Amino acid sequence: QLQLVESGGGLVQAGGSRSVSCESSGSINGINYVGWYRQAPGKQRELVAQITRVGRTFYADSVKGRFTISRDNARRTVYLQMNTLKPEDTAVYYCNAGGTDISPGPYWGQGTQVTVSS
Asked: Is 103 in contact with 30 (CB distance < 8 Å)?
């Protein structure tokens, strides 16, 4: 049973950058898809970005060109670098593991709040 712990959230001004991390309690070497989802107040949770075991990446249209996902299997950690942040990026960001390209996996972190002020 993997436990995922996110860190790095906080308050940032519009146009700024923030990096969030997700550390796993166990190895992620054998897990194909790991990714980040987010949920804004009053909205459904949505996929932000995914990365496969071989490094293929997928991004939501709303973050393409601004966000970068990466993984370090040796450190059991997944990263999300967020640049040129917008107020609409404000959400709780959740790490996820074990899913597919069309659905999240069974492992979720507790979430980390990212707030972008205008």
From this structure: no
The β-bridge relationship of strands 4-7 and 18-24 is antiparallel
Query: What are the residues whose beta carbons fall under 8 Å from the beta carbon of 14, sequence distance 6 or more?
Result: 85, 86, 87, 116, 117, 118
Q: Please, which residues bridge with residue 11 across strands?
A: 115
Mean of all residue pLDDT scores within the chain: 97
Show the CA angle centred on residue 19, arms to residues 13 and 25, nearest 5°: 145
20-68: per-residue pLDDT in tens?
Answer: 999 999 999 999 999 999 999 999 999 999 999 999 999 999 999 999 9
Place of tokens 């999240």: 104
Residue 63 DSSP one-character state: T
